[in-house]
């Protein structure tokens, strides 16, 4: 279990191995170490910080994210559309900083496994640190080009977040079990078009592409309304199923 | 593992204990029973049916759904926004036909558990059949009014899909562990408003309401375009976190 | 001025040269003829029908629409994004049944003019009837292929609703006044891409493509919520301006 | 006709009574005065500026806008849903800086008229300057509280952009001709609810509320995709029709 501190404005802080210094004062490391979720600690300036058990979103938000990461909304749609669950085997590429990796590792649990491929060694190392930091032991990071082949077999999902997912369709097909899914995250519609063509050619079934828009609602004393600004686009999600 | 048959148009069929009769001919029960995912069976009219391992979405689509069920998109957002994962403890109300129950049970796996409350005995029985049919052993169905109290403690998520979620906020608070989430699914904006007020009063943090729109993209030879019709609204999702 | 009748359920009826026969009884032609907007007429069964001055949306909804027509939302965006107003000169192609033609003719008024090109004589004739029926005298229908050339000059807007708008970019450029707009309505993203390339090549400025989603809100006693079903896509609107 | 200058990056400049000074050099007033749309002028640094005929969107973008103004998308929907056209009579409140006023004045033309009510004298004066600057002669600005009454009769549209439109429903009803529309722009869903109740009570027909989302599409060499950021909400538009 990982702890996290939250100040009275809802701002969150990861806990390291040193005293926590904030604009609202500091809290001693020993005090933090001996606290439990639900406790309230005070800074030397008397400001209250709540101790919470960190959840995965806290962690991903606060970890080292040197490359762009997938938003929760898209991870949620992938989970629901491919029927992800505890105990599944997943292949992912590329790892990036590991946001999706951690989400998927947390989801499949100790009876499941995530194998994540990444070309670049620097990203693979950041991801390593991030995955370890969250305490996951069911993740294998592979600094390999996924185009050259997928070592695993009989997996439930191959998830692709890389520029040319169509180059991996055949490898994915070989790695998937019957009924398993390929899911790809691609910002451009041109990528959707090309990938769909290859999925059809390789006889995937249930081919489908969607986009997901999440809009936040503001509930204020003056009234209720959607927020003025929203994310208009992250990427399209394309799915195919091996028959 | 549950098997499913799919014809050449992508239509899927649950497998019962009898021969499968379809418009494209029948397949004998023995033949189905001895088949494995990946096999192709032929009807007496020579039409091909693929054997697939049923996944959760196949199952929920085909099971007995006598009351309205939550769409995958909303279950996905709940999963991602509350950081759901393998091994978690979840309280749900009401069960309805059990679509959300099965999704959540599948997600938390054998180290986790779902406790689902339902007022009406008829729904609880349908849900029982559906949950059993999917083979889940980590679900406890309770034919009880959740307003009268939640028996569980220290749970990760209380998920509410019932008309007056604000009546359950205090009970949920007592049931949740520190850092755990309440999530509610409500079709009307008026419900969002009232629930938010009560969540604030009960000192929940990270209070947030969103709506999720999923739009399907058609990739045809003529070109690529979003589908003409889409689901414009299911419900708002409101989240709060116990500190 | 054109009159229209509306029953107590909000259903509307165009007035012809004969008695009006409805499921709720009939009303004599003479009675209708001598009525004024605001009057209430009764059928022989005693049901009340309101007399309204028909507006353009009533008319377009009720007229002969043998081909697919542009929705008001898209006509509204075209109007606002190109700064349409009274007195302007517009070239349109193709006419179809004339829905956009009538909208534009009504908008530019007697000091303005709409020149509308249509390949197919049958559509051109339906449009003729529809335009006349609405009483517009500022519209010229031309049964001509717009690709072969636009006769007009110095126009404010060239509006294209046909499959290959890029074939008309040069002709449109010649027809437009400096500062005038080309606007195109295309269902497929592939069309947007190709048209944009040609607009850039022909040195149009302010090139922009948008899509417009309108969602209806239901205000009921039970609460307020967006409608369950909505139109997810009609077409993309692409704009360019002649400098 | 009003002229405008545009540099090679698409940035636009209103023309005053003096030399134009920009970061790319200056252009003499006489040279500007004697230019015509379509001409290209050069700054003393040799940079090219195109002369365009200003259209209404250029003007509204560049004029003095001290209070928040309605976006074109919403003005477009109002136009299309109420069947606005040349020659109509419109009552508006409040004027604000006059963006909607100018749009509507331009639309109804010299045979139509816009009567715009504004409580605050400072806004009324800014609007006066803005309306004059655009050269409209069919607009009457009234520094009056619209709740106290509407002087006009038999108008086609009463458009309300003020916090409590329900206070004006009766006055609007008296001012409207049979078949005319009330349209209101309100950011909060609570306002929609209240207004709808009053419209029903006052026997308006065709009562409808919508929201309009416009998403821009980026067409780049790398591919086509919706923009990352978009406007998630401006306001709801509510319509009612006098029978
Ligand atoms: C956008 S990032 C992935 C981000 C990640 N999904 C997350 O949420 O944190 C894409 C990654 O794919 C990697 N990549 C690209 N092509 C690859 C290939 N052929 N094999 C393995 N990794 C690849 C890139 O180096 C990059 O780190
Ligand atoms: C819309 S259904 C739930 C559907 C379910 N989420 C699914 O996806 O299948 C709502 C259910 O809540 C139940 N319910 C309402 N109030 C309740 C209460 N106080 N305690 C337990 N169940 C309740 C109703 O009987 C109904 O079956
Ligand atoms: C979708 S319809 C237009 C509908 C119309 N905008 C409305 O709202 O009623 C397209 C029309 O364009 C016409 N068309 C296609 N190519 C053309 C061309 N090169 N010149 C003129 N008309 C053309 C077709 O015959 C068809 O009637
Ligand atoms: C948001 S602004 C209008 C902006 C305008 N629609 C535009 O697009 O530029 C609302 C205006 O309504 C005015 N107002 C509020 N209540 C009013 C009333 N009862 N009578 C007249 N004006 C009023 C305010 O002073 C304010 O200037």
Q: In brief, what are we looking at here?
A:
Chain A has 243 residues and is α/β, with parallel strands linked by helices. Chain A contains 7 helices and 15 strands.
Describe the protein in words:
The model of chain A has no long low-confidence stretch (mean pLDDT 95). The first copy, chain A, has 243 residues and is α/β, with parallel strands linked by helices. In chain A, the strands form three sheets. Chain A has an eight-stranded mixed beta sheet with strand order 9-8-7-10-11-15-12-13, with helices on both faces. A four-stranded antiparallel beta sheet of chain A has the order 2-1-6-5, covered by helices on one side. Chain A has a two-stranded antiparallel sheet with strand order 3-4. In chain A, β8 (113-117), α5 (121-133) and β9 (139-142) form a beta-alpha-beta unit. The first copy, chain A, has two domains: 3-54, Vcp-like ATPase, Chain A, domain 2 (Roll); 64-241, Rossmann fold (3-Layer(aba) Sandwich). Chain A is 27% helix and 34% strand. At the C-D interface, β6, α2, α3, α4 and β11 of C face β6, α2, α3, α4 and β11 of D. The structure holds S-adenosylmethionine (4 copies). One S-adenosylmethionine binds at residues 67-70, 93-94, 96-100, 117-120, 123, 145-147, 161-162 of chain C. Residues 67-70, 93-94, 96-100, 117-120, 123, 145-147, 161-162 of chain C line the site of one S-adenosylmethionine. Chains A, B, C, D: S-adenosyl-L-methionine binds at residues 118, 145, 161. Chains A, B, C, D: One of its GO terms (molecular function) is tRNA (adenine(58)-N1)-methyltransferase activity. Chains A, B, C, D: Keywords: Methyltransferase, S-adenosyl-L-methionine, Transferase, tRNA processing. Chains A, B, C, D: InterPro entries: SAM-dependent_MTases_sf, TRM61_C, tRNA_MeTrfase_Gcd14.
């Amino acid at each position: 279990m990982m702890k996290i501190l939250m100040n009275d404005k809802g701002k969150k802080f990861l806990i390291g191995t040193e005293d926590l210094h904030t604009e609202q004062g500091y809290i001693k490391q020993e005090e933090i170490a001996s606290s439990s979720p639900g406790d309230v600690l005070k800074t030397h300036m008397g400001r209250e910080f709540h101790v919470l058990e960190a959840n995965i979103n806290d962690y991903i938000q606060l970890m080292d994210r040197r490359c762009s990461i997938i938003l929760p909304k898209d991870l949620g749609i992938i989970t629901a559309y491919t029927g992800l669950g505890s105990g599944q085997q997943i292949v992912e590429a590329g790892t990036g900083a590991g946001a999706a990796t951690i989400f998927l590792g947390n989801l499949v649990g100790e009876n499941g496994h995530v194998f994540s491929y990444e070309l670049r060694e620097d990203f693979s190392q950041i991801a390593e640190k991030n995955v370890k930091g969250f305490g996951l032991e069911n993740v294998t990071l592979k600094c390999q080009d996924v185009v050259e082949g997928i070592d695993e077999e009989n997996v439930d999902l191959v998830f692709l977040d890389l520029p040319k997912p169509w180059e991996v369709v055949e490898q994915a097909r070989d790695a998937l079990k019957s009924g398993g899914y390929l899911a790809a995250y691609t910002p451009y519609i041109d990528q959707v078009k090309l990938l769909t063509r290859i999925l059809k050619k390789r006889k995937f079934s249930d081919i489908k592409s969607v986009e997901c828009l999440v809009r936040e609602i503001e509930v204020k004393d003056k009234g209720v309304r959607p927020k003025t600004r929203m994310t208009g686009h992250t990427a399209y999600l394309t799915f195919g199923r091996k028959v």
